[in-house]
Amino acid sequence: MNNISNTTIEDAIKRLTPKPDPELKNNLQEVLSFRAQSMPQKSNKLIFSFGAKLTFTVFLSFFFLLATVIVIAQPASAKEFIQALEQCTLSINCYQQWSETQNQYGQEIEFVEERSLDNNDLLSKGASLEGDPMYEEILIDLGAKLISDENGVKTYKMPITNHLTFYDSSEHTLNTSQLDILEVSAIEELIWGDVFSDDERLTSYFFRLDNIGITYEQYDTESILTAAGAEFVEEFDGGLYYKWDTNYRIEFIPDTNLISLTDTRIIATNPMLRTDSTKFIELIDSLKLVSNY
Amino acid sequence: MNIFNKNNEARLIKNAINNPNEFRYLYELYFEKIYKFIVWRVRTKEDAEDLTSQTFLKALDKLETFNFKKNNSLNSWIFKIAHNLIVDFYRGDNRNNDEISVDVVPDDHTSSLEDEIAFNELKKKIAQLPHNQAEVLILSVIHEMKNKEIAQILNIKERSVSSTLSRAKNNLKQLVTN
Hints:
Chain B: Residues 26-95 form the RNA polymerase sigma-70 region domain. Chain B: InterPro entries: RNA_pol_sigma-70-like (IPR039425), RNA_pol_sigma-70_dom (IPR014284), RNA_pol_sigma70_r2 (IPR007627), RNA_pol_sigma70_r4_t2 (IPR013249), RNA_pol_sigma_r2 (IPR013325), RNA_pol_sigma_r3/r4-like (IPR013324), WH-like_DNA-bd_sf (IPR036388). Chain B: Keywords: Sigma factor, Transcription, Transcription regulation. Chain B: Belongs to the sigma-70 factor family. ECF subfamily. The complex is a heterodimer. Helices cover 49% and strands 15% of the residues of chain A. The radius of gyration of chain A is 24 Å and the shape is elongated. Chain A has 2 domains: 44-157, no CATH class; 198-291, TATA-Binding Protein (2-Layer Sandwich). Chain A is of the alpha+beta class. By secondary structure, chain B is mainly alpha-helical. Chain B has one domain (6-177). Chain B is globular. Chain B has helices at 6-18, 23-38, 45-62, 68-71, 74-93, 113-127, 131-141, 147-154, 158-177. Chain B has 9 helices and no strands. The interface between A and B is large, with 52 and 63 residues.
């Protein structure tokens, strides 16, 4: 141990750490390649196309999440944005093109956000925007409800409300909380930038159990899930995975008291589809029922 | 995260999820790091190689579940897999720290015989530390990880990393001195 004690422990550990055998690296690489080849590949084209549409949807969704009410003051910019999307063909290059576009218009989002946050009156009333059929179509898809139509200005109210805390944005706190369900995928796309489309996020419903009174401090959530018919499968990386109603997978993340529901048949066949919302509501109802006993 | 920013890492992960053959780029990035972490924590070179292999096979299988919101970075995610496998390894074999001994000299062609002996000696000492101290020490010293990242990997509180590291260093110095 002489040559260790003559130097610091840290230096000794660094200096003495052996490198892996190159043969191991090559052999393992071969095994991984073999394994990878047997795994299904997903269609990039579809994902890019869908990702672009989704991210545009996210653009608007986030837009409303930030302020609930936003007047689109720069329609020309938005149209340029749509034009850029239309030019984004179904090719591999589409991905890079989309990223640049998104970065560019990410600045626009911040600009509008500042304007809207300055107008507290509008914030409390609902979304107002100048008529653009494409916007309307997307807004309706997102669940927006038309509240008024005056002088060509339509006012919408967005049902997505009280879950901004999910991405820790306390400076954009919203007041309303009518709807408990949040499709996290929309927000996460913007949090992390780029077009990082995790198929699981696109197909799953997310739900914070606090919204139905099942707080982590007061309830044994794992028992509630079991009582609601969920069968524990495995624990992995901070998440507890359950099988539910034959074809559904529930993930419970204790740290955030969040559950997600995913139809495993969709993951296996067409990740562009969404899990059936009626099953999600059924699960929530079951959890409510069980937790009341 | 020293090499890639979050967006680039996200792109590599996304590509690997869409096409598992692309996993090789992630493998290139992490292979040596993971081996160097595990080799200090297990008894033999063969065990280190086996657990390194298992880490990457599991990472490939589970990559679809990776999620930035939950996992923060691929670095901490993949080290966490390695950490869990080490825990399972000792749990499964019903071993404990006291039973760890180094009986195989590492076949590292770049090391001198003196260094190899020193490595084995030092590893014996580190093996006498509690598991959490040994892992915090290795992650901090070899991989120069920040406390926050170490806390995520080992599933402990960030503020306890500093004290654990301090205890590990003190204990190890005593063991080496004695």
